[in-house]
Design goal:
mainly alpha; 4 helices; flat
């Protein structure tokens, strides 16, 4: 009669182990996400620093806005996304999911509808 209890304990232990493994997997996924975000931020900072250096070299930062304008025009006209940049953007969009957010106009409209319903009732 002692054997059935050991079987139940073993099943419970296996379930706890699976639960712990799942939690560890989630933690690993979150760490990987943080690492990817750090890489993206690092590359962005490097790119911005390089642009700032070019702008400073062209205009010296002494109020010459034409250098900044030229730099921005060059960046906008010649900029093509690499495959990795597109993948990073897709990753960020999937993570943030902008479709789950409401615009200010949508919230105002919803509040007006709720106000009308409350006034009727």
């Amino acid at each position: 009669m002692v054997e059935p209890q050991k079987g139940k304990d073993l099943v419970a232990l296996q379930a706890d182990l699976r639960s712990a493994e799942t939690k560890i997997d989630l933690i690993v996924q979150k760490i990987n996400t943080v690492e990817k975000n750090e890489e993206v931020i690092g590359r962005t900072i490097v790119a911005h620093n390089e642009k700032l250096k070019r702008i400073e070299e062209k205009g010296g930062g002494g109020g010459d806005s034409s250098a900044l304008k030229d730099e921005l025009e060059d960046a906008l006209s010649k900029r093509f996304a690499t495959k990795q940049e597109v993948q990073e953007l897709k990753y960020v969009l999937d993570t943030v999911n902008p479709l789950s957010f409401a615009t200010i106009d949508q919230v105002k409209e919803l509040l007006e509808e709720m106000k009308k319903e409350l006034n009727k009732g």
